[in-house]
DNA sequence: CATGAATGAGACTTCATTCAT
DNA sequence: TATGAATGAAGTCTCATTCAT
């Protein structure tokens, strides 16, 4: 079941150090776990499944991970930053266009990775994970908020909206978008969502100005 | 464990019908399930836990439900409509105030019931349940959309936003609000959220007009 | 669920004494047990099934029988003699015809009653029952043997066969016949079996004599 | 619990292949099942019993068998042919002696194996098994019948008996013998049974001829 | 007496984890 | 180091039996 590499060139030295192999195996396991968690859910997936799917024996699984949960944590650590929506730069181009592009990229990436789908199942089971996630969210919110504050100081935002709430709303949209596209029969339209977000952030006349400046 | 009723009318006939007791027990089980699902997650909760928590034997659980999943379904059927956000009436009062009140009521109710928290865990496991939920969401989206179309015809909405997307955005906010309050250290502020929603729906001058008309 | 009798003539006195009713219920239960045991096997049949099939509540079952096994014993006690093959009278008519008639009657009766089919399942579980059965068989064997001895003294049997073994063989045929008819595609033929039995018991010339005497 | 082999050849390589051990454990389970089924009956025996009796944990049982029934099937597949009575060769020696020897060997083997005792309990529960058995019986009957037909053509059988019924009768005796020895207090006497069978098959004068020819 | 809800022991089965090879 | 057989705790579910109504 092992032995799939090391036959690429003739005469090869024992050039692939064991740590690399080990890392590869570890990775194969994580990847296998990711697929199965997404496909069948976390608790529906057994350690044996993960090992089999990675092409190793169950014993090997336990050599690399203390248990299923730890594999999951590793999965997260590896990919957490992929989950984090990028912070938009509001003033270096047409915000609507920038946002639409960012949204599309982010949603697509989330869908590729897919782990966000198992999160809800896990939070009650794993307070530590939960902690990590909440922390990540809090940071994200701070970053959003401070970037909004910057453009507020430039007088670009609505005067009558609470920026904290604006940041929260935008995050809500950005985070939950891809899971909740079954509402309408229409395809999700990134440009339209971008418009809505811009409306929450900028008064229309400001937006026009920004669009003209850079367009 | 038994003995909780039989004090309804004077005379004390042997009249407490069996069905009443049975229904009460069934209810105790559902309630017990609800609590434990919310507290520990669905797959973390065993049938035995639910029975014990309801103060009955495991056999009793299986008298009323074929299994854990069926209990969950019953729970849903009983409370699905409680989960559905109410449809706001946009033009019979200050929309911001109306919305804030609705939001507060809805969020509080969701938090009391709490099942929405297990939903994401369940959807991959129970396609039937998933179906029900998606359907409910679709209907809700339609209702929102058509109510927005009405006020659009009255010329009250932004001309440049796609109403379908607006409806989607509002639902996103309304549905996910209570779960995601860990972002900021501030308390969730219904009035501010209401303002943001109103901004997405109404141009400011329209909103002012609506507020003055009824205020 | 009860109340099915006592409406036969007008003005009727409370004339059906309880014991009769009780006996009827008891009987209904035994009968119900018999059917279900035969259809589904003993251990496949639950006390609840038996009660339901008899149209009474499970509590009633336990009023009449201490448990399933006791019901079975009662069933046996009631019907044991029906299971016992009749002892043929060898010399009062054509033995082949007499035997064929007896066999047919016996096999048919066994099939109607049907309990012989659950016996094998029960013997390991219920040594007491087992005891009863072995005893019944032993008696039957004795009866057969002594009846064979009588005709032996009249010089009607083979001289070179051990009568004990002859009796054993005949019982083997008589007892197992109806269960083992799947061997051949042909219908079971009582007359032919009777002939075989007669061949074991009587030398042909004796048989002819007996047939002529009475025919 | 482990350690029972590894002494086959000198040198003691780490050469006992896992499959051998596994097969041994599988066998231990089957054997354990056989004993318990015979002693306590099929439905009285639990998977746990079987595992414990084989000296392994319950999980090990389920590694080798999907459930109790499957173990039983394996047991059958392994030993079905042992259950099948051998076909006698009627004319190559004194039939009585040959038969007595065959009967003794067959009965003893049946008693050693013992599974025939659980058969009757199983047939109603397991139609598939039932099918296998009926088929085996039908084949056996055919074989018997055709061997009888052969000696019939040689003029060695009774003219007035139906060979189909003769075959059926012989099988009845051969199959049920060992279970039903409780009839009489005497030991079962193979020679006497053989005599009875011969009487059903051969007219006495033919038998004498056969005995003299080869004796 | 009849009822059937309630009980809980115990059977069945899965799976995370260990450990000898 | 890799393997996978073995383990047994823990969950699911059934059913004989009791007992309040």
From TrEMBL, chains A, B, C, D:
A single GO molecular function term of this UniProt record: DNA binding
One protein family per Pfam: TetR_N
InterPro entries for this protein: DNA-bd_HTH_TetR-type_CS, Homeodomain-like_sf, HTH-type_Tx_Regulator, HTH_TetR
Alphabetical keyword list: DNA-binding, Repressor
Domain HTH tetR-type per the UniProt entry, residue ranges: 23-83
Segments of the chain annotated as binding DNA: 46-65
Alphabetized SUPFAM superfamilies for the sequence: Homeodomain-like
PANTHER family noted in UniProt: ACREF/ENVCD OPERON REPRESSOR-RELATED (PTHR43479), ACREF_ENVCD OPERON REPRESSOR-RELATED (PTHR43479:SF11)
Identification of the protein by name: HTH tetR-type domain-containing protein
Originating organism: Pseudoneobacillus rhizosphaerae
